Amino acid sequence: METTSSNTKKEVDMSKLEKQKDDIMNMLRNDNLTSIVLVGDAGIGKTWMAREIRARAIREGLCYETIWVSMNIKHDERSLLENVAQQLDLHSTFQEWENDDGKVEEEEDLNSLRQRISAKLEEEKSAMREGKKWLLLILDDEGNKMDKKDVINEFSKYQDSLKVLIFRRKNDEAPNTHSEEIETEPLMIERFSDIESEILLRKIVQNKLSSLNGFVAHSATIAKKCAGLPAAINVMAEAFNFFEEHNSGGSSLEAALDYAVNNSTPILRLAYDMLPSDVMINCFWHSVKFFGKFGGVHYNELIAHWIIEGYFCPFDHIEKAYEEGHCVLMELIDRGLLKIQEANVVVVEGAMLSMIDPRRRGFAGTASLGLPSVLEDDKWNLLQRITWTDGMIKTLCGSRKEEKVSTVLIDGNRFCREVPQTFFHGMEGLKVLSFLYPRLKMLPQSLSHMANLLVLVLRSCKLLEDVTCIGELKTLIALEISGANSLEGIPEDFFEQMPQLRSLNLCGLQIKTLPSSLSNLTELQWLILSQCSGLTTVPILRALKNLEMIDLSGAASFKKFQDKNIDFLQNLRMLDLSDTQIEKLPILHNLSHLTRLLLRGCKCLTKLRNLQQLSCLQVLDLTDAIMIKEIQDDSFENKESLKILDLSGTGIGQLPVKLGNISYLNLSGCLELQKVPSLMALIDLESLDLSDAVKFENFEDESFEHLEKLSYLNLSNTMVKDLPSLSNLSNLRKVLLKGCTLLKILPTMEGLMRLEVLDLSGCKHMEKLPPLNVFKKLEVLDLSDCSSLKVDENESLVHSSCLRELNLDQCGATSLSEIAANSLEQLTHLQILKLFGIMKDIPSFSNVSELTNLSQLSLKGCSGLKNGQPLEVLSKLEVLDLSGTAFESLPSLGTFSSLRQLFLRDCLWVQELPTLKSFIHLEILDLWGTQIKEFPYEIAELTCLKHLDLPSLKTIQVDWTMIKCLPAKVNWEECDLSPSVLHADCARPSITVNDTNIFLFLEKDPNFWKALSKQLYLSVCLVDKQAKGQDAYCLQNQLLLGNIYFQTRHFPYSDKNNQCLEIHGSAETNGFPDAIRKVLMDAEYISLVENASGSCSSALGTIGVKNMKGCWLESCTEMKSIFCGDKGDVELGANLEILWISNLSKLESVYRENVRLESFQNLKCLHLDCIPALENLFPPSQMPVNLEVLQIRFCDKLRTLFKRDESCRCTLEKLGTLHLLELPKLTKIGIRLPSLEKFDVRECPQLKDTKEDLKLGSCACGKC
Question: What is the pTM of this model?
Fold first, then answer.
């Protein structure tokens, strides 16, 4: 595997380093020394030094060959020899892991491999004509996962020419030595001096970065914080390199440099804090966990571990997961957090192993199986040599080696191409099997014969109905059966034969109980039952004394443990009961290893037990545990380990006086909290959030100067009138006071040299600001809706060059907008700029053209600005608000192709619009108050448009036939819509709307609706909550295509005397919205598409649809009957003449037999299309005596059209048209049709009736 990373230390020309190398080389030249030991701290650069020595020894001819063994990898005998063979360019069986072409020969035995290695070394020794003929064996002992003696024994036959160079950590025990070895006293590798550290840092960073003023100013301080450890220097340098490369430098990079310089957090933690995504963070901590226990691993195996743990879910193809994993791996290497060694083995930077996981849920809350925690030492390499190909990751082997396959990871798309019962033939030795998103109802029976299976993953197996065969797998260590929605239960004895099971994940199962045999899993360490929504309790856990983690988060029905006391779980580290119905916690006394107690969303929990004895607790999360009203005063005494306390959304009215030494305190949404006790003891507090604690008024402290680490303060939407002094909080970066309506003056804020965000939006009574020029690092300043604000005339923004967002919308200090407009030349990093109320022209506003990164610009009410042309170059704009502007030099709006929102309200200068076709992303368009002369017909092509404000339509002649679709929200009340919008000779237009707002408007004037509905054909799309994210373009196009199809179905488009309405979807479970219900009462022709009701009666019968003459039903997948005998059926069908039914997959009957005969006597036209479950059409009691047209197509089970008995007529007098197409089981019509003129029968192989038979047949009932 190749990498462009600078993960090895760059060569630095420094005298101390060169002297150390010279000393080591002199020892190598000493024939009397056979073993040399070098010792240093983790991160000191031992591996780098070893590489340097090896290269120099080769150059000077001190050895005929060098062999490198990383002792932080747990090699078995074969893997050690294969590693040596690869270094000697001996192509072993498995040299290229990626090339699984099925042509690999049988794996050679160990003796043969040793012989080839020996022959190669003898050849190298013989070829060396000059110099000492030493074999140099380098043991990189960092991690110490192997015994040095075992490695040296493999080279015992070369003892006379063997030199061993050993590198180990300072605190490791001295290595064992053979009596024959003559070993030096350990040579200490010293830390770099501050000057040497800075030189190395400058060498590693990219040239572009090293020339930045910010880096030059901070490099010495950063280097000093690295404490002389090359590893720390390298990690930070690579983090900055990556940050600069992917974030385009600028103020954000300078902020990151400043963060590294001034934050008290250890330097390696800072590099970790710069990781950009949760996926990368999860993969990093998994690697730390794995390498800390087992050492290095081949990069393919590491990626496979990440996939098995579910870090890249969801995905549909395993190749995508592998590719994402490879990208994550490369980025972690590029950042210096992981290192790539010989034979493509990956290890973590050793200095990172001592880091504490700061995440709220930690490793146990993010991994699906926790293999690094639950695997034993002899099973760490169970994945072995793997490769990925064609939807699978599996053990690398040849076509004759099925019995050697030990690992298979396969996705559902790939497995569906296989025959399940034969796929695993010959794989009886399988140890790891992972089905990812399988489409199986039943598992292959061969699975139960896998006697060596250790890990089984069945992830997101939604169709799986039975797992009984898994119970026979006696060797399982880890088992995941997740997302099996169709699985109704697990056998009681399911776990009886799994004594070794250590990790069990049943996430997302809908089972109501767990097997009692779970109580016998004495080795179980991880128990994941998250999202098991039907689970109310768990079996007795007393025998499960090895449990380290219990996750019941999202088990919405869970109420209690059967064990009232769980203090026997002495190894428990995490207990997650979030979003359960638990009312009372079990006794938790003496759980000395518990670090995370997560009770988020436990709305039934009324009391928190005393936590005093949980000495190692790090995280307590009670978010939205609304019934918690108080916490005992002594709960947090002596809790020095507690770092995260989240009480947001609880009902507490006061806090305990002592809160330990927490770093993060979240009290947001605590509606009863009025004050906070003194925070003097919280010297490590970094984050304080009281947002939306609507009764909170004050702090006990007059100053926060003791909170030196505080970086985040959020008091938004509280009742604070005065704040403690914030002076000299040099690490404070975010101050959020949004909606603090009682706050008039800010406290002293001197010394906030790193303040990045100041949000005062909605502080309506704020009168005065501190001088803004002291906040030189400020990136976000939001003063919107500070209507009382006044600023000093000498205020300036010229020192706020880091600003990315400046919001002055509705700000009372309009002069500040003028100041900003005059300062644009300095504000080149702005991405969001919202000015307001500028009443005079400012020539320097032309500098806005320099803000090339601007994505949002608002000039609302800035009527004084005259020149709009500089805006044209701002091609990245996504939001542009020009409301109330009065430009004389007009901007060309056609240049803003990236816009999502465009506001032109009251822009009198807008008299015509550019073509809208280029605004393909536009979601909001406001044209109210413009002077446009033509209607913007192109809005129908704006597939993302959701909100449209039209100008007055009084003076605009509208051709409504050109308007095919309107967005969900339109300003109907403003735009002067009137019933006279159409000309008499105009064709009747069809318009699709995506919401019910138009009906709310029309509801106010029923006569208006009555007139309008006869001129327009309206199709309305109701999107339910689950479909809210569906692409509006897809919905609109479905409706438009439906309209074209609709015109072929006898729908009365052209008849202007009919009220027509099409409704697409179901927005509410209890029926249609009220606005539509009132419209339906008068509608004459109604179409329901994709309605979720069980019948037409339930959809329309309760509304009182009295005038319906035609009903069209399409793709209503839940309908089983059209009319079912309800009271409303008589009224519903009284005037019905046309019934058109299409694509109703569950429909079993049109009329149920209890429907009253007189209900549908006016039916004249009936069309049935694609009704696969319908067997009989008309029961004997429901003969449609006035039916004239009957068309039936693609009804696979239909056998009879008219069922008769002795009580009914055998003739339909008026039926003149009968079309039948592809009805494979239809055997008879069942009735005489004397008026039949059009009889078209196709692909009805069992129907024998002819037109003449139907017309001329004799009456047999005597009633016709």
Answer: 0.76
Q: List phi, psi (to 5°) of 550.
A: -125, 120
Residues linked to residue 1189 through DSSP beta bridges, in sequence order: 1165, 1217
Structural contact between residues 960 and 992, judged by C-beta atoms closer than 8 angstroms: no
Task: Give the residue-averaged pLDDT of 85-112.
Answer: 57
Lowest mean pLDDT among 25-34, 230-239, 1085-1094: 230-239
Instruction: Indicate the SS3 state at residue 1122.
Output: strand
pLDDT at 1192: 93
For residue 207, give every residue at least 6 positions away whose Cβ sits within 8 Å of its Cβ, in sequence order, or none: none
Q: Contact 801/827 with Cβ under 8 angstroms? A: yes
What is the C-alpha separation between 473 and 492, in angstroms, rounded?
Answer: 15
Across the range 107-133, mean pLDDT stands at 77
Tokens of 943: 């597939």
Q: Are 1133 and 1111 in contact, with CB atoms under 8 Å apart?
A: no
Report strand pairing: 856-858 vs 879-881: parallel
Q: Determine how many CB atoms are found less than 10 A away from the CB of residue 603.
A: 15
Closest CA to 142 of 292, 334, 305: 292
All residues at 6 or more sequence positions from 750 whose CB lies less than 8 Å from its CB, including other chains: 727, 728, 774
**Directed axis angle between helix 15-29 and helix 46-59, to 10°?**
60
Residue closest to 1079 by CA, chosen among 1026, 1020, 1027: 1020
Cα distance between residue 832 and residue 830, in whole Å = 6
Average pLDDT over residues 293-299: 83
**Cα–Cα distance for residue pair 718/623, rounded to 1 Å:** 18
Confidence of residue 880 (pLDDT cuts 50, 70, 90): very high
- List phi, psi (to 5°) of 35: -140, 125
Q: Among residues 59, 50, 61, 115, which one has the least CA distance to residue 88?
A: 115
Instruction: Please give the Cα distance from 990 to 1044 (Å, whole number).
Output: 10
Q: What is the CA radius of gyration of the chain?
A: 38
Q: What is the DSSP string of 1193-1206?
A: E--TT--EEE---T
Handedness of CA 72, 75, 81, 83 (dihedral sign): negative
Q: What is the pLDDT of residues 716-735, one digit of tens each?
A: 999 999 999 999 898 899 99
Helices (H), 144-298: 148-153, 194-204, 207-210, 213-225, 230-247, 250-262, 267-273, 278-294
Q: Which residues pair with 676 in a beta bridge?
A: 699
CA distances in angstroms from 553 to 530, 540, 580, 637, 862, listed in the order given: 5, 19, 7, 28, 52
- The residues, any chain, with a CB within 8 Å of residue 459's CB and separated by 6 or more, are 310, 313, 368, 434, 435, 436, 437, 480, 482, 483
Place 102 in a pLDDT band, splitting at 50, 70 and 90: very low
Cα separation, 1261 vs 168, whole angstroms: 105
Q: Express each pLDDT in 592-613 by its tens digit.
A: 899 999 999 999 999 988 888 8
404-444 pLDDT tens trace = 778 888 888 787 777 777 777 777 788 999 988 888 888 88
- CA-based nearest residue to 995, from 1075, 929, 896, 1112: 1075
Q: What is the pLDDT of residues 189-199, one digit of tens each?
A: 878 788 878 88
| Separation between Cα atoms, residue 259 and residue 270, nearest integer Å | 8
What spatial distance separates the first Cα and last Cα of the chain, rounded to whole Å?
89
Element (H, E) at 712: strand 712-714
Q: How far apart are CA 1073 and CA 1062, in angstroms?
A: 14
DSSP 1078-1092: HHHTT-SEEEEES--
The better pLDDT of the pair 1039, 1086 is held by 1086
From 407-416, 1184-1193, 1215-1224, the region with the lowest mean pLDDT: 407-416
- Cβ(1226)–Cβ(1247) below 8 Å: yes
Can you list the domains of the chain with their CATH numbers? 15-190 (3.40.50)
Helix (H, G, I), strand (E, B) or coil at 158: helix
Please give the Cα distance from 434 to 906 (Å, whole number). 62
